[in-house]
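Lab notebook, bench 4. We co-purified these components, and the gel suggests they stay together. Before we commit to crystallization screens, I want a quick structural picture of the whole thing.
Request: model the full complex, all chains together.
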Amino acid sequence: MIKNQDNFCILPWIHLYAEPNGDVYPCCTASPLPDMKPCVENLKDKTLEEVYHSDSWNKLRKDMMDGTRPEACTRCWRFDDAGGSSYRQYNNREFAKYYDLVDKTLPDGSLEDFHFKFLNLRHSIECNFACLTCGPEWSTGWNKYHKGPTNNTKLDNNSKVPIWDQIKPHLETADVIYFTGGEPLMMPDHYRTIDYLIQHGLTHLELRYNTNMSNLNLAKYNVVDKWKMFDKVVLGASIDAVGKRAELIRYGTNWEQLEANLLSVRGYDNIHLGIDSVISILNIDHIPEMQMYMEDKGIIDNSLICSYNIAFGPLEFCITSMPDDIKQRLADQLYDHLDNYKGKLTHPQWGYKQIVNFMMQENTWQHGLLKNQIDYRFKFVKDRLLNEVPLIRELYYYDG
Ligand code: SF4
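Here is the predicted assembly.
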């Protein structure tokens, strides 16, 4: 039934990702890139069930079975082609037990039942940070730094039936509920959801997060006290740097507090900390330092999942957007570090290769773009970027 395992993903059978405005995508990685035709429906027009049975979702499943790469999944294909571990590969491993659903699928991609095993809940875009690789469309923390009107279509929620009401009936049979944001730990709706799960005896559900881990308390809630009640909690901590660099590029970070929070969740059998780093020109020169610091402090060890996600945007921060001579030097630096590294971590062995392959895949360097953006959009941190990030200073003044 599956013609090419390398171009297959199980998610369109078991998962949907809904944004606060009701847009629904096959997963969070399938959100669109510029000039890309996404696979998207909206809950203003359809229910979740209608989306699952829609022509576009059937076509997606058909393409997956036929071994044709859907354009909507461009991010995964780019990671796959860079020899890395894509979100597709990860989920195919995690949800391999649901491959039998493919056998129940008709050649046109349709199937009778409606299966949600993995639910991604993005309640809102509330966030306390203004990360430089993010923006006002995804974080309320950006509001005070954004120039010009904020046309935030992500908040325009007017769904046919509220998303939460549609998701509730599936909680009994789901395996995983995944909270993203904004910053989920800042959202009252997140706490209402986990209280609902506790009250309804659904603590067997695995909780998964993308979180900045900056604040483990909201009003009367301490999230660790809640997490202790669940069988399994998987944290993807968004850490791209340590110390001053972290405080600059994930703007709003207090590194001392963040480090204490990361250490505080180690030692619980049911809480699994992982590190999800976004790699950009803001930190590619800092990765070995970050990794060694966290290893020395006991924040990470070989039992943790550490993933490297490439920032596709803003384009001026993407690691493909550098002159070739600088890319080559950075690649050499990463490989030199691996040659001399005396620690115990194994993920850098494959992770650095993935980063370098991705960086070399294409060249999107546009002379003047980075300078313009730093002078305008990132003016609020311009001095710090030029003084504290040598690579940014070099690119800003690059004359080649
Ligand atoms: S192939 Fe990638 S982008 Fe497409 S649904 Fe699977 S994980 Fe998401």
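The pocket of iron/sulfur cluster is lined by residues 9, 11-12, 26-27, 29-30, 73, 75-76, 87-88, 91 (CB under 6 Å). Worth comparing against the SEC data before the next meeting. The chain has a mean pLDDT of 92.
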